[in-house]
Design brief:
The protein has 477 residues and is mainly alpha-helical. The protein is built from 17 helices and no strands. α1 runs antiparallel to α10 and α10 runs parallel beside α13.
């Protein structure tokens, strides 16, 4: 299982490195540079609002499907037709709830027009994720890797023409960006559907109320967990836009820092997409998860610490590479968010392990506490500190949640960490801090040199264990 994890991790990272940075920084950031800060701010707030009730589109079905198919592949085709029918019913429910809540928050007219497309996009994304849950459950990671980047690849092609060629003299509009996303998601869904139907047959849609109820009952714990986690990770920008006196601009500042956080988080989520079905299968077959957990946690958490430190010391230069305005206003929120990234990566490893193990009561309870902490801090800090206050709330919330998960895993799974491993991590952190303190990035070459040195330093400190990786690669699957 470790060999499967390492080999497919390498493939997915490679494909994502080739496509997603261009989509995020060459397209998404370029769009923000071309439209007004306030215009992008309202888009970003609406985008995050569209995530808040996203759980109504899924109800935990994707995670439940991935786990079920990974543990019993023979059930794959039996789920398809009934679940798809149920999803169209969920889309109607999601639309009604989201639009009602948007009106209650005071949005109307142009904002509701944009939101309607964003809600449609969420539905298509959920269907793509459902197809990918089958690919993951069947351990078809190569297929999953291609589908995972297809929409971004298409976005680069279509949106790149509008941004970088003189095809139109009209200034770029944020609604163009949303429409192109809808097109790209639609094409990706069509491709994923053809693949899944080829493997499992074309489903005959038939709504079955009893079966739908059974799905809700079985998947509800997963649904609740996803919903609670979305609330405390996506509510910040909505609260900034709604309760700060200069909300749209502050949300724009927050979005600039959050974009980089989200870019790194996309790569980190590759670990979750691979680990969840593998952990599920290992628990089913009563295999020892500790070696894989150790490998994954060293790579991901060690890497996140490196990224956070480099981003902190070189924040203004990094932001200036991407944006043309509001660098100073976006710097502190960006620094705080990147330290929050460490907690997010820890949650990806240990939260995924606990989800695969079935410790959903603990995870849901902890996420509910996280929401309380996040909303309280946001409500206190945002009116006076705007984007910076929201970033503080994210950092504190992610740190508390991830640390609690880590301690719980150690106690329940009787995991142990040697003093040597702790000292190695501490020494690595001290080294990277010293490197970044004395060597600041003033050019892309220097920044790449710092990153390269930091990655290389992970080897002697055993965060990347070359000997262990070689043994994994030589293993028979």
């Amino acid at each position: 299982m470790q060999k499967k994890f390492i080999s497919n991790l390498a493939l997915m990272v490679l494909l994502n490195l080739l496509v997603k940075p261009i989509a995020i920084f060459g397209i998404d950031a370029a769009v923000q540079n071309r439209v007004a800060t306030e215009e992008y701010g309202i888009y970003f707030s609406l985008l995050n609002f569209s995530f808040l009730f996203n759980i109504l589109l899924d109800l935990g079905i994707n995670n439940f499907t991935t786990k079920s198919v990974a543990q019993a592949p023979s059930v794959a085709s039996s789920y398809l037709s009934k679940v798809l029918s149920f999803r169209f019913f969920l889309f109607i429910l999601y639309g009604i709830v989201s639009i009602t809540a948007a009106y209650a928050l005071g949005w109307n007219g142009y904002e509701m027009y944009l939101l309607s497309f964003l809600l449609l996009n969420q539905f298509i994304i959920t269907l793509i994720a459902y197809a990918r849950s089958y690919f993951g459950g069947l351990l078809l990671f190569k297929t999953d890797a291609i589908i995972s980047i297809l929409d971004r690849f298409l976005l680069i092609l279509f949106c790149g023409v509008l941004i970088y060629t003189p095809i139109t003299e009209t200034p770029f509009k944020i609604e163009w960006f949303i429409w192109i996303q809808t097109l790209c998601y639609g094409i990706t869904l069509a491709v994923a559907s053809v693949i899944i139907f080829t493997k499992l047959g074309v489903p005959k849609l038939k709504f079955d109320s009893k079966y739908s109820y059974d799905i809700i009952k079985k998947s509800f714990p997963y649904a609740l967990l996803i919903f609670l986690m979305i609330i405390y990770t996506r509510l910040d920008s909505v609260m900034v836009e709604r309760i700060h006196e200069n909300g749209k601009a502050e949300t724009g500042y927050y979005a600039k820092g959050f974009r980089l956080l989200n870019a790194f988080f996309m790569f980190a989520m590759i670990f979750s997409n691979l680990l969840f079905p593998i952990f599920s299968k290992m628990f089913k077959e009563k295999e020892n998860v500790a070696p894989l957990l150790t490998t994954a946690s060293k790579l991901l958490i060690g890497g996140s610490i490196m990224i956070a430190i480099i981003s902190f010391f070189n924040s203004e230069y990094i932001l200036s590479l991407i944006y043309t305005e509001d660098i100073f206003e976006s710097t502190l929120p960006f620094q705080l968010l990147m330290f929050g990234f460490i907690g997010m990566c820890s949650t990806i490893v240990f939260g995924t392990l606990l989800t695969a193990r079935g410790d959903l009561l603990f995870l849901n309870s902890l996420s509910a506490i996280g929401i309380g902490i996040n909303i309280t801090i946001n409500w206190i800090l945002i009116p006076n500190y705007g984007a910076t206050g929201a970033a503080v709330a994210t950092l504190i919330t992610q740190s508390i949640v991830s640390l609690t998960q880590f301690i719980y895993c150690i106690r329940m799974l009787k995991l142990s960490f040697t003093p040597t491993a702790v000292l190695q991590l501490g020494a690595y952190v001290a080294l990277i801090c010293l490197l970044c303190f004395y060597l600041r990035a003033e050019s892309v070459a220097v920044l790449l040199g710092i990153i390269g040195a930091a990655v290389f330093a992970m080897i002697p400190f055993k965060l990347i264990d070359i000997k262990h990786l070689r043994l994994i690669v030589k293993q028979e699957e």
